[in-house]
Amino acid sequence: MAAWKQIVLAIVIVLAAAAAWVTFVPGSREVLARWGIDWAQASTEKAAPAQGRGGGNRPGGAAAQTPVVTQPVTTGTINDQLSAIGTGRALKSVVINPFAAGRLTTVAVAAGDKIEAGGVIAKLDSDSEEIALERARIAQGDAEASLERIKALRASNTASAVQLREAELAVDNARLAVRDATLALDRRTITSPISGIVGILPVEAGNYVTSQTAIATIDDRSRLIVDFWVPERFTGLITVGAPVSASSVARPGQVFEGVVSAVDNRLEEQSRTLHVQARIDNANDALRAGMSFQVAMHFPGDTFPSVDPLAIQWGGNGAFVWKLEDGKAKRVPVRIIQRNTDSVLVDAALVSGDQVVTEGIHTVREGAPLLIAGSEAAQRSGS
Fold it and tell me: What's the CA gap between 235 and 264, in Å, rounded?
């Protein structure tokens, strides 16, 4: 057999199979309608009057109307809840470094101790600083005695004004030297600038340290700051002072309340997220810096009509639904906002309570009367 004859035969077989499927398989026309192929339904509509005129099963030759199933439109809300993962850190945290190099003679705290601001953490050897302070005090005393002598001589015009001024400058310099020596001696004692909890100490008495050596870490964890990032769509909804609830992964089921303490002034360009900080209380000291938190926030959200997923149809102009209006079908364009498991949120001219067709859609046409399944008319039509 020639190749063109084989091709023609194959096309005929495919068309015959398709026609048989449309004719004898239930629901095939509805499937074609969802694909945007309306020729099967149109041919059915044209054939129906002919059957009626030919003496169908209905009195007067009227064709049977297929009932449709409708579902009411409800409402759904989106962007009403935010959930994010954040990391906690202490309200205040400092790493203590000595002002100068030296050998540790005393370590006054241990890991886990509570310390107040100004409390002593450790001391460095201070023999040379003590000697320098004593020498400065002696020099100050000598300068002050010289000033008194010059003042007495000045009273009898034996000393000049220049000598008096030089003596006064010597006293001022001696006092500054005492202050400098006192400061150097005080800095041999390492103190805490904040109140908090002492971390694990990386040094011991006898170690030689420099100004770059970390002596201790102090955390004020009376409250924790949780850093988290939120999607761009929540940017205008989050404000300082807004309530926040956080649950720790380490303490499932326990929720900690707090408030938003800071909102960044710009979004991160790569992730398109906004940096937010929340402050939560830690009065019982149950939380630690570095913990991860599940942060939740609630907002009024945006409300949209919600329809059954089966009601959504597609045509040349996009998605639409068939709405029941005065017993007739009306095509309503929709814009899909969000798909859920059992509903679809849409932006459309629909209100809660409107009826939309979910089954039997292949029989629906614009402006055509609808026979609702379960209604009295549908029962009479089936009898």
Answer: 10
What confidence tens digit (pLDDT) does each residue in 104-160 have? 999 999 999 999 999 999 999 999 999 999 999 999 999 999 999 988 888 888 888
- Smallest CA-to-CA distance from 347 within 358, 338, 356 is with 338
Domains plus CATH for the chain? Answer: 3-61 (no CATH), 69-78+303-382 (2.40.420.20), 82-92+217-301 (2.40.30.170), 126-187 (1.10.287)
Compute the radius of gyration of the chain from its Cα atoms.
44
What is the structure's pLDDT at 236? 84
Bridge-based pairing of strands 344-348 and 328-339 is: antiparallel
> Which parts of the chain have pLDDT scores under 70?
1, 4, 21-22, 24-65, 374-383
Residue environment code for 97-123, b if the CB has 16+ CB neighbours within 10 A, otherwise e? ebeeebebeebbbeeebebeeebebbb
The phi and psi torsions of 67 (rounded to 5 degrees) equal -65, 150
